[in-house]
From TrEMBL:
Keywords: Hydrolase
Pfam family of the protein (one): Abhydrolase_1
InterPro entries: AB_hydrolase_1, AB_hydrolase_fold
UniProt GO MF annotations: hydrolase activity
Source organism, top-level taxon: Bacteria
Boundaries of every AB hydrolase-1 domain copy: 10-240
Gene3D superfamilies: alpha/beta hydrolase
Name of the protein this chain belongs to: Alpha/beta fold hydrolase
Keyword Transmembrane helix: no
Organism for this UniProt entry: Ferrimonas gelatinilytica
C-alpha cells in the first residue's frame, strides 16, 4: 500500500475520497503534525500508485489498513477520512475498535447513497489518455462532457505521462467502476464503535442529512456533529484553515495521554 508516514507522537491516519490519493489531505496532515501528531497518509486500493486489485469492498479496504498497522507496529491510531475514505475509516473503527482511539468523518454517512458519478464515469471512459498532449487538453474534454472545472482539474491529477508521449491513468478505473455499487452501499453491520467520533459536514453539501442521524447514532453512539459553513463536499479543500483547526481540536481533546509512540519502519 502506498503511504507517507511523517512526524512523531500519537498516530493519525488520513484517508482520501473517490479518485483521490495520499496527497489530497497533505495540508491537514501538516497542520496536525504542527500540533504534535504523527500522520500517516495513504492511497486506497486501486488509487494512487497502488497495484491493481480486482475488488475493493469495505471489509477488504479495512483489512488493508489493519495489515499496514501491523506492518508498522502501531498499537493504536486515530482515523480521519473524507467521503469514501470516511466510509473506510468507519468500517475499520467498527471492525477493529481496540486499535482506534478516535474517528473524524468528513461529509459522509455510513449508509447507502444513490448513484451520482455516472457522468464522471462516462466522461473518463471516453477519454483516450494515450492521445493527449497535456493535462489541460484532458481537462477541456472532461468539461465538454459536462464535468465542472474544479472536478475536472481534480480528476486529471490521476494522469501520468508516458515516455513515448501521451498519458495513462494512475488509478484502476475499471475496477473502481465495477466496485461502485458496493462503494455507495452501506458499510457492513458490526457492533457499535464506542470511542470518540466527530462528523464534520459541509454547510452546502447534501451528503450528510437528518435522515442519517439514526444510523449514525446506532453505530457511533458517542458521535458529535459540526457544520463547516461556506463549504461543500470538498470541505477540507474549500475551508482548509477551519477544517484543520476543527480536526486538531478534536484529536487534541481525545488522544490518549502518554500514547506518543512512533511507528517502527
Amino acid at each position: 500500500m502506498q503511504y507517507q508516514l511523517e512526524g512523531s507522537g500519537p498516530v493519525i491516519v488520513l484517508i482520501h475520497g473517490l479518485f483521490g490519493d495520499l496527497d489530497n489531505l497533505a495540508g491537514c496532515a501538516r497542520a496536525l503534525r504542527e500540533q504534535g501528531f504523527q500522520t500517516l497518509r495513504l492511497s486506497l486500493r486501486n488509487h494512487g500508485g497502488n497495484p491493481p486489485e480486482a475488488t475493493m469492498s469495505f471489509p477488504e479496504m479495512a483489512e488493508d489498513l489493519e495489515r499496514l498497522r501491523r506492518q508498522l507496529s502501531i498499537s493504536r491510531w486515530a482515523l480521519l477520512g473524507h467521503s469514501l475514505g470516511g466510509k473506510v475509516a468507519m468500517a475499520y473503527a467498527q471492525a477493529h475498535p481496540e486499535h482506534c482511539w478516535g474517528l473524524l468523518v468528513a461529509d459522509i454517512a455510513p449508509g447507502a447513497y444513490p448513484r451520482r458519478h455516472d457522468t464522471v464515469f462516462t466522461a473518463l471512459r471516453q477519454l483516450e489518455p494515450a492521445t493527449l498532449n497535456n493535462r489541460q487538453q484532458a481537462q477541456q474534454q472532461l468539461a465538454q462532457a459536462g464535468i465542472d472545472l474544479p472536478t475536472a482539474a481534480f480528476l486529471v491529477k490521476n494522469l501520468r505521462p508516458l515516455e513515448a508521449g501521451g498519458f495513462y491513468w494512475r488509478l484502476n478505473l475499471d475496477a473502481i467502476i465495477d466496485a461502485y455499487p458496493s462503494l455507495i452501499d452501506a458499510i457492513p453491520e458490526a457492533p457499535p464503535y464506542l470511542g470518540p467520533v466527530m462528523f464534520l459536514k459541509g454547510g452546502y453539501s447534501d451528503y450528510l442529512q437528518s435522515r442519517h442521524r439514526d444510523d449514525i447514532q446506532a453505530r457511533f453512539p458517542e458521535a458529535q456533529m459540526k457544520i463547516l459553513l461556506g463549504a461543500g463536499h470538498w470541505l477540507h479543500a474549500q475551508k482548509p484553515v477551519q477544517f484543520n483547526r476543527l480536526a486538531a481540536e478534536f484529536f487534541r481533546a481525545h488522544h490518549p495521554h502518554g500514547d506518543t509512540q512512533t511507528a517502527v519502519v
